[in-house]
Write a structure and sequence with these properties.
Elements lengths: L1 H19 L12 E2 L6 E2 L8 E7 L12 E7 H4 L5 E2 L1 H4 L1 E3 L6 E4 L5 E5 L8 E7 L5 E3 L4 E2 L1 H4 L4 E4 L6 E7 L3 E5 L2 E6 L1 E8 L4 E9 L4 H5 L2 E11 L5 E10 L15 E8 L7 E9 L10 E3 L5 E4 L9 E5 L5 E8 H5 L5 E9 L2 E7 L8 E6 L4 E4 L18 E3 L2 E6 L6 E7 L5 E7 L6 E5 L1
Parallel strand pairs: 5-33
Antiparallel strand pairs: 1-2, 3-4, 3-34, 4-6, 7-8, 8-9, 9-10, 9-11, 12-13, 13-16, 14-15, 16-17, 18-19, 19-20, 20-21, 22-23, 23-24, 24-25, 26-27, 27-28, 28-29, 30-31, 31-32, 32-33
Length: 450
């Protein structure tokens, strides 16, 4: 009896402390609940309603080109899940700084947007936005322009390091080098630049040429673009995706059609950004640069999973880079084979956790129509997600952002010029629920949630 009384008193004391110690800035917590069996206080986590920012790309010249600028609008996760709630980013949202389509990233908690202006007179300018809900985004007073190092159209991603660092990459227009009237190689100068996201400044950068093997270079193969840098589990290497091209050694001109080498990535020391090394897959082909979004992720098993694009023979695949920072040539998940299609192409994808990922993709017979797939990286299975309202005008070509919040996976689905919805998927079960309505305008489409 005394033991039971002591527990009740202890529970009352904890309850009292929880009220007296909180300030107006604290997250409101529910009162302490006592377990009826043990009479011990049961700690409950605070309920937080995350901001979900939707972004929309405006038409410039042609429907779906997305080059007319980018609008953003933020709602609570509760509203994002409500199929009766209507979001109109084009009427009520705010434009973010960008001459064309902005390349946005968000903090893990959804309270901050990060942006690097893409092209134009202020291309390469990095800034942050504080998310206050609806169309209220407050731009940081400080900006930093990285264009002198990485050009006015840098590709970049935020590292999964607690929102501390972003890495921008670029490669100058490759130059054809001929010696004694004999073709030698084609190369550009690569830049790898680390951004301090908290203090809005350049933390480090390095520039260098990145050669391929002498045999590959003699055939005209070269790095055309870098993108989608990812920090490995050990935190000591960056894996950077590569887009390959080929020069015709006989003419010095770009060769539009060629047999692709195995998929390649660049590995550099981190945080030094030195010692670039090219690694090559022998089972996967195509490019590993993605387009406007993350293209590789560290899985729960500590390995990096990476998508391929522009493989005209085999379609898109998911490859694995082990913790030794080399391709695992025993692992591949090919979408063509798994889905029974030809010419699959992953526009964007996101690791959701527990070995599960989601990808927006198209394929040859779909005539650019987009679909959503659920990928089990452990079982090596791919399934088209049902419960989504698919449409012939659904185009994910510029898609950028997904949100993973606990066990919820958020994706924005709007055909070009038509209304659509946010969809919320249970990561564990795969169950799909239709969320908030996304109002649209002719020629426009939504390109992400953050």
């Amino acid at each position: 009896m005394k033991k039971s009384t002591f527990k009740l008193l202890a529970g009352s004391l904890i309850l009292a402390m929880s009220f007296t110690s909180c300030s107006s800035d604290d997250v409101k917590e529910e009162p302490v609940v006592t377990d009826p069996t043990t009479e011990e206080p049961v700690k409950e986590e605070p309920v937080k309603d995350r901001w979900i920012t939707v972004s929309g790309a405006k038409m410039q010249d042609a429907p779906g080109d997305g080059n007319g600028g980018t609008m953003v609008y933020a709602v609570t996760s509760t509203n994002a899940k409500d199929p009766n709630f209507v979001i109109d980013v084009y009427e009520k949202g705010m434009p973010v700084q960008s001459n064309r389509t902005a390349r946005l990233q968000s903090s893990v908690d959804g309270n901050t947007l990060f942006n690097i202006t893409y092209t134009g007179s202020n291309g390469g300018e990095f800034m942050t936005y504080k998310v206050n809900g609806e169309g209220n985004f407050v731009q940081s007073g400080t900006t930093v322009n990285i264009s002198q190092y990485a050009g006015t159209s840098p590709r970049w991603t935020k590292l999964f390091d607690g929102d501390k660092t972003g890495v921008a990459v670029n490669i100058t227009a490759p130059k054809v080098i001929v010696e004694n009237e004999v073709y030698k190689h084609t190369r550009g100068t690569a830049t790898v630049l680390a951004l301090d996201l908290q203090n809005i400044l350049i933390a480090n950068y390095k520039q260098y040429e990145i050669p391929l093997t002498p045999e590959e270079e003699a055939q005209g193969h070269h790095l055309f673009r870098l993108d989608a840098p990812t920090l490995n589990k050990a935190g000591n290497k960056l894996i950077i995706g590569a887009w390959m091209r080929k020069t015709d050694p006989a003419t010095g001109e770009n060769q539009s059609s060629f047999d692709r080498l195995g998929a390649k990535s660049i590995v550099v020391d981190y945080p030094a950004l030195t010692n670039p090394k090219v690694i090559t897959s022998t089972v996967g082909f195509g490019d590993t640069s993605g387009y406007r979004s993350f293209n590789s992720f560290v899985g729960d098993d500590g390995n990096i999973y990476q998508a391929t694009q522009r493989d005209t023979k085999n379609g898109s695949s998911i490859l694995r880079i082990n913790q030794d920072n080399e391709y695992d040539n025993s692992y591949i998940v090919n979408l063509d084979a798994a889905l029974g299609v030809k010419g699959s192409y992953i526009d964007a994808w996101r690791y959701a956790g527990k070995g599960i990922a989601y990808a927006v993709y198209t394929h040859e017979a779909a005539n650019n129509q987009g679909f959503l797939a659920r990928i089990d990286l452990n079982a090596k299975t791919v399934q088209r997600v049902e419960g989504i309202e698919y449409d012939a005008n659904l185009d994910f070509g510029q898609y950028q952002g997904f949100v993973v919040d606990g066990n919820d996976f958020y994706v924005a689905v709007t055909p070009v010029g038509k209304a659509g919805n946010i969809y919320v998927i249970d990561i564990t079960t795969g169950a799909v629920k239709k969320g908030a309505q996304l109002a649209n305008k002719p020629g426009n489409h939504y390109i992400g949630v953050f």
